[in-house]
């Protein structure tokens, strides 16, 4: 088999408080009580979704992200007073006779803030990202969703925020589950090569999915297709893959029988940033005709760095 071209998945990983469902967690050092809370939060979310699952579909949990505790600014103010009180003994010598008054003032602030929070029913809540599917019980296809769930300390759902919805046919859905399991896509006779390439692929792909994007549904589908491509070929040819994505786009979005005149190669789009040339995406053209050569047109395809088609421009020739 020919040597693979290293996949260039550019991954501007935005560091946020929650990177989504794509991070593999090591819970070996998590306290049992924390794990218990995490399980109860997940159980409440599962029950919430199952109650709303339409007839003909079944709920399938795919991934949960890390559990976070979200605090209102008024709760953070209480935390600050408590932190000051805990640190106060280290300032006793500096404060001298004013130490007791400073201590009393902080204790009064803490009591007042606790009463304010209780009166106004201000509580912390949990937030967790969840990827799940509603599986069609007949066709094996699925609708895949990503939501951020907010959950009260009593495990009631506070709010939900949809981040992605994408319909997958049976083949793509099967490959999504293969991808999420991080199963091998490179399986040549060289195990060291396979190990390195599989590690690089999953590291890049998962990081790309963890980054913020306005078209995560398209990104997910592209990565599923890329997983399938490498799985079948044990290699990655970016020009061939981009061409296949282009033809798939035409089949799914155009109601015309297009006949090919010519296709360009995949061309890199280069910008200069701080004096250095940087690849910012790719482009490819497809010249076609429909009924006769008198009716010629060109489709200009623009890809991001992960080979997602982000724009298509049609022009007459």
Describe the fold and architecture:
With 317 residues, the protein is of the alpha+beta class. Among the domains are: 72-119; 256-316, no CATH class. The protein is 39% helix and 27% strand. The chain contains eight helices and ten strands. Strands 1, 2, 3, 4 and 5 form a five-stranded antiparallel β-sheet that branches. α2 (73-87) packs antiparallel against α4 and α5 (170-180) packs across α7. The longest helix has 21 residues, at 99-119. Mean pLDDT is 88; it is low at 1-28.
The average pLDDT is 88
* Alpha-carbon distance between the two ends: 40 Å
N-to-C SSE string, H for helix and E for strand: HEEHHHEEEHHHHEEEEE
Coarse shape: elongated
Helix content: 25-40%
Question: Major sheet, described briefly?
Answer: 5 strands, antiparallel
Radius of gyration: 27 Å
List keywords for this structure.
317 residues; five-stranded antiparallel sheet; 27% strand; 39% helix
């Amino acid at each position: 088999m020919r040597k693979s071209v290293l996949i260039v998945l550019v991954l501007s990983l935005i560091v946020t408080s929650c990177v989504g469902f794509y991070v593999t967690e090591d819970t070996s050092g998590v306290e049992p009580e924390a794990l218990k809370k995490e399980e109860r939060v997940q159980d409440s979310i599962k029950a919430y979704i199952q109650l709303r699952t339409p007839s003909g579909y079944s709920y399938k949990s795919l991934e949960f992200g890390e559990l976070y505790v979200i605090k209102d600014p008024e709760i953070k103010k209480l935390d600050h007073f408590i932190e000051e009180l805990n640190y106060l003994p280290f300032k006793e010598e500096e404060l001298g006779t004013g130490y007791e008054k400073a201590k009393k003032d902080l204790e009064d602030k803490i009591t007042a803030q606790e009463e304010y929070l209780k009166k106004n029913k201000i509580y912390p809540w949990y937030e967790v990202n969840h990827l799940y599917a509603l599986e069609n019980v007949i066709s094996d296809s699925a609708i895949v969703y990503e939501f951020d769930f907010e959950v009260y300390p009593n495990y009631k759902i506070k709010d939900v925020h949809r981040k992605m919805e994408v319909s997958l046919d049976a083949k793509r859905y099967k490959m999504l589950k293969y991808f999420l399991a991080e199963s091998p896509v490179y399986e040549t006779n060289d195990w060291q090569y396979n190990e390195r390439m599989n590690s690089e692929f999953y590291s890049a792909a998962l990081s790309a999915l963890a980054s913020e994007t306005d078209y995560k549904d398209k990104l997910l589908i592209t990565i599923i297709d890329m997983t399938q491509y490498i799985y079948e070929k044990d290699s990655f040819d970016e020009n061939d893959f981009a061409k296949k994505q282009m033809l798939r786009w035409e089949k799914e979005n155009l109601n015309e029988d297009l006949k090919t005149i010519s296709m360009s190669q995949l061309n890199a789009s280069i910008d200069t940033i701080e004096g250095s040339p940087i690849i910012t995406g790719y482009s490819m053209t497809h010249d076609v005709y429909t009924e006769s050569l008198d009716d010629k047109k060109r489709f200009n395809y623009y890809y991001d760095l992960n080979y997602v088609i982000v724009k298509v421009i049609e022009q007459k020739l």
